[in-house]
Amino acid sequence: MAVAVKDSRVDFRVSDVQKSLLERAAEIKHLSLSSYILSSSIKQAELDIAENEMLILSNRDRDLVMSALENPPEPNEALKGMFK
User: Fold this and answer.
1) Residues 44, 50: contact at Cβ < 8 Å?
2) CA distances from 8 to 11, 12, 32, 34 (A)
3) DSSP letter at 13?
4) Would you call 7 helix, strand, or coil by DSSP?
5) CA dist 4 to 1, 33, 34, 36, Å?
6) Of 11, 36, 71, 77, which is most buried, counting CB atoms within 10 Å of its CB?
């Protein structure tokens, strides 16, 4: 089994209330505080990135995009001029 080398550090400060909340959640999951924070942060980061990189279209919008791709309009004079 491969073991990832952890050579970077992230430090941050929290209030006593925030730390207690995180410790309680970590205990429920049977994880160390660091493991809990890391796994939770990684999951959220993956969701945030996916949300930012994914475009969700309505059926109508999807049909419009597909129609434009399948039946592109004729180039106008300005576009034709760019290729001369």
Assistant:
1) no
2) 10, 14, 18, 14
3) -
4) coil
5) 10, 19, 16, 17
6) 36
3-state helix, strand, coil in the chain (%, to 5): 60, 0, 40
Structure tokens at 70: 């399948």
pLDDT digits (tens, 9 = 90+) for 13-70: 999 999 999 999 999 999 999 999 999 999 999 999 999 998 889 999 999 999 999 9
Confidence tier at 1 by pLDDT (50, 70, 90): low
Answer for the pair 51, 36: CB distance below 8 angstroms, yes or no: no
Indicate the DSSP class of residue 1: -
pTM of the model: 0.63
CB-based contact 29:43 (threshold 8 Å)? no
